[in-house]
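Standup notes
- HV: blocked on the assembly model, inputs below
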Amino acid sequence: MSKVKKWVDQRFPLSSFIKHDLVEYPTPRNLSYWWNFGFLAGFVLILQLLTGIFLAMHYKPDALLAFDSVDHIMREVNYGWLIRYMHAVGASAFFAVIYIHMARTLYYGSYRAPRELMWWSGQALLLALMATAFMGYLLPWGQMSFWGAQVITGLFGTAPFFGDEIVIWLRGDFAVGDATLTRFFALHYLLPFLIVSIVVIHLIALHHVKSSNPSGINLSAKNNIPFHPYFTAKDLFGLGIFLIIYSYFVFFNPEFLILAENNIPANPLQTPSQIVPEWYFLPFYAILRSVPDLLGGVLAMGLSVMIFATLPFLDRSKIPGGAKYRPIYRVMFYIFVLDVIVLTYVGAQMPTEFWTLVGRIATLIYFLTFALLPFLSKYEEKKLRQKGLPEEIEELIRCEEQYGRGGKK
Amino acid sequence: MSTSESDNEADLPEAKDRRHFLEKATCAVAGVGIVAAAWPFVSSMNPASNVLSKSTVEIDIGSIKTGEVKTVEWQSKPVFIFHRTPTQISAMQDSTGSEIDPQADDDRVLKPEWLVVIGLCTHLGCVPSKKQEGWFCPCHGSRYDNSGRILRSPAPKNLHLLPYQFLSADKLLLGKA
């Protein structure tokens, strides 16, 4: 065994990789369970790849066969029901985990220097995940699948000059049809490989800048502990909790997040009485509906996803640490989270006058949070420093001004 | 108990043994869990129930005249049902085929007038065609007699038998003896 190891190590840095990046990898000792969610996202990604590959062995991306092949998976394939429910629940689990992962980053200001590239690769992952989920949702070829794809591809029709041509090009047909289904299947299978490669970039960046931590301050070496066994154990414990919740949905309530309407085969001649996207798209869908102008709505929706990337520029405060040490930022964080929950709720309601008004106010608050951040973060810093910060914090700020954030101290 | 005392305790040999035992137990449980989780995936690649439903087929043989062969599909494979003439039956009962794979005709049929065999050459799986003296495989020239026994290589075996039963004088059930 040791001979084989030696042979490999002379040709490939296997042992040193395991030692430096898995076993001895220095991790802040004060990480809370909020730091579990990156690992959980990686786990769900593998789960989705695995179940997806096995589903693809039985699924048929053909408009005439797709719906029945899903039925075939549910009724005839050995454990097909389990693999499909794992995949369907897994999609929701993926977004739940990612949204918590993002909220943690916001609360603790982990997107700030030197972790901007982690935040931006994360933004790319979010986009790829959304595209993958959207295209995967068409594959069961139910009513919601069909009309969801019809509506979302239709949004590209607002593009100036070539709108109609772009929509037809995307669909490969004059409406969502067999050509659309087949290409969505191909891309739904392709994008996860793109996601895996961005995850690799995300992790390389992480191992370069190391994990952030609840204090928000880059810890000195003596405050780091080896990843194994401390965080392997902690991550696996978190995984156990995650799997209990995940299994509840897979085994006891698998249809909870599947809209009943989607058990009716796609019918291009009849739209369901109300089209509701999957829960993870609801806040953005609510923003789309809140803007009276269609093109404006599409732009607002796109902006609402992409605006996260601007955070490292918008947050101008030099106060180290997360929301715990920044009273105004903390209030903004909670208002924003609450606002996203309101938008999620509004996105699922019929667009009555009342809900449209609530949606518009929530949309305004959503963008105002970002728009006010540069001013409020600066104001907050000024106030805090006037009130007097501990000398250590002032020194930390001076150091960062001198060497750049995350630089040597 | 102070921390330094408990630190010392953690270094005692018994504590190390206990830790090693816990490590091994954890790994064993995790291993069992991974195997259990892998099983549904492996199982999903086995024939689904709609495929398994093809495992038995009822065949009406009343319309097959003496001397005629009918080819039917069973489990996605061709099956020859051969209604043999008295001369063919006696000729087959007198021989045991060739020395490649000798077998008595009685061991290959339930009723002498009906030969039921899988219609795939035992060499590489082509479908042999019916000739006067038996079957001839167009792929590599193997020959079989009217009992489906191999007469000329390259095929190494007689045409394979399958489980079947007579439901009535002119009704066969393939796939179940």
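- HV (later): unblocked. The beta strands of chain A are 26-28, 224-226. The interface with chain B takes residues 50, 54, 57-58, 72, 75-80, 82-83 of chain A (CB under 8 Å).
- Next: hand off to the docking folks.
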